[in-house]
Amino acid sequence: MSDAAILINTAVAVIATVVLIVRFKVNPVISLVIGSAYLGLAVGLGVKKTVETISTGFGDIMMEVGLLIAFGVLMGSILNETGAIRRLVERLLKTFGPSRLPYTMGLACATVLQSIFLDVLLVISAPLARKLAPKIGRLGTARMATAMAISLECGIVFMVPGVGALALAGLLGVPLGKMLLFGLLIVVPTVIIAIAIMTFLFRRGLWKEESDENHELFAAEEEEAHDGGAPTGPGAPFRNNSSGRGQPADVPPAGTQGSAVAVAAETRQEPALILLFAPLLLSLVLIAAGAILEIAKIEIAPVQFVGEPIIALLIGLVGTCIVGRYTVGQKRVEAGISAGFRESGQILLLTGVGGSLAAAVTAAGVGDILGGFFTASHVAPLVVVWVIAAVLHIAVGSVTLSAITAAGLLAPIAPALGLDPVLIALAAGAGSLFMVHVTSNTFWLLQSLLGQTTRGALKSVTLGVSVASVVALGLVTVLSLFI
Question: Residue 180 falls within a domain, yes or no?
């Protein structure tokens, strides 16, 4: 088969996958398998070889990142049960003050909280951000909304153990410790710079409070809370008590007729916040230590063992279980684990079939064909990677899916680009952030949970994350000059 025919069939496979997801609402997992099967058959692999390629690609990526994703999601789910996120936000507010809250909360969500599944983290943190927005003063809602959008989306693709970062590292063969170190170098300045740019634009008149904020929603919630009912809107996970602080909805306020156990749980002294996050932080430190030893070519067997990502995250998970059992009890830990298993199912399948598409592209010989189209320049290939991921994201509406698909297409040609694979992973992640819009579930969650109109969300979410996407590409390009 000619090179042109192979490229055309590859394009058809990708376009068909996008159309199935967007137009016909077919599940992305099924769509990616269909696209992989079409490509294998269309380029002449045959039935048996096509099925073997899909299965092998799935198995290879699961071998790389399957346990890592599962351990990370489980750890985050247990942290959710302990109330660690609420307490972290309260501590950030107390320590750094309201004016710096968008930056501090944004950095926390983009780094240490990335073990928590995105939708869960969003539902927990967004009501807290909305309640704290008035403390920032003018433009509080706009600044918190854009900070949440930028940090949550950037963390997914840049920061280990974010599911996008794990998938990109696995597909492109990037050591996870290396992905952690270089992802951290990109995500921290990206979040800070992008929030600063959006704050500047908001202060220059971009944000119109009367048309960009949903004041009717706020009024309805306040009236409902005043009447004694539990809020049913964006603040539903929390109810206001007389002091104005949020507390979990399943805990009765002081003075009500709750069980003695519930009242005791509410009034007992909470454990130190660092204790709740210690296992997660330890696992990240171990992974980073292993990566540093690998880069420095130093062999210390015990450190290398515990620095292996699977072992490090396993240590973190076991530690989180122990801390959770001590702080909230075994039943809550088991509930967190059950929720984590439910959340990780589709993530694992989606990541696996991303590997199937990458294997089909490799078997079709696309890497050898496209390799000749790229120069060894450090700049142009990164821009191409970014554009591919950006176009896929605009079409599909999923940051994780577009990053995985772009990485799957680019993995076979990575050696021909003359770039370190970590740069390709970071560029694909940056491109997948561009234009988070109305096809994205995250867009609507941020719009409703933070009390914005659709017009407001287009500014804080769509524009904000797109600015972060461009900033990240610039930082990755600069980084490419040194590695």
Answer: yes
Tokens 């376009």 map to which residue?
Answer: 15
H/E element, 374: none
27: its two tokens: 């599940």
Chain position carrying tokens 């096509």: 50
Give the SS3 label for residue 257: coil
DSSP state of 228: T
The Cβ-side half-sphere exposure at 85, using a 13 Å CA radius, reads 32
Q: What is the pLDDT of residue 330?
A: 93
Domain count, the chain: 1
- Tell me the CA distances in angstroms from 218 to 215, 243, 441, 466, one per residue in order: 5, 18, 22, 28
Query: What digits encode the pLDDT tens for the residues 313-372?
Result: 899 999 999 999 999 999 999 998 998 888 777 778 877 887 787 788 778 887 667 655
Cis peptide before 381 (omega within 30 of 0): no
How many alpha carbons lie under 13 Å from residue 46 in its C-beta half-sphere?
A: 3
Does residue 199 sit within a domain?
yes
CB 449 within 8 A of CB 123: yes
Residue 30 located in a structural domain: yes
Q: What is the largest CA-CA distance in the chain?
A: 77
Residue 450: the pLDDT is 82
H/E element holding 376?
none
pLDDT the model gives residue 439: 61
pLDDT tier for residue 373 given thresholds of 50, 70 and 90: low
> Which residue range is the domain that position 147 belongs to?
3-219+273-480
Cβ 151 vs Cβ 113: under 8 Å = no
Q: Is residue 444 part of a domain?
A: yes
CA distance 21 to 309: 33
The separation between CA 159 and the C-alpha centre of its own chain, rounded to angstroms, equals 8
- pLDDT at site 225: 46
| Residue-by-residue DSSP string for 266-295 | HHSPPPPHHHHHHHHHHHHHHHHHHHHHHH
Residue linked to tokens 């309640």:
131
Distance separating the N- and C-terminal Cα atoms of the chain: 37
Reported as type and span, the H/E element at residue 462 is none
**pLDDT tens digits for range 230-272:** 443 433 443 333 333 333 333 334 444 444 444 444 445 678 8
CB atoms within 10 A of CB 206: 16
- What Cα–Cα distance (Å) separates residue 465 from each residue in 15, 59, 134, 196, 481? 24, 33, 23, 12, 25
Determine how many CB atoms are found less than 10 A away from the CB of residue 146: 33
Place of tokens 């590292």: 169
Of 107, 121, 96, nearest to 449 by C-alpha is 121
| Residue 53 pLDDT greater than 90, yes or no | yes
3-class secondary structure, 216 = helix
pLDDT for position 454: 82
| C-alpha span between 304 and 2 (Å, rounded) | 47
pTM, entire model = 0.73
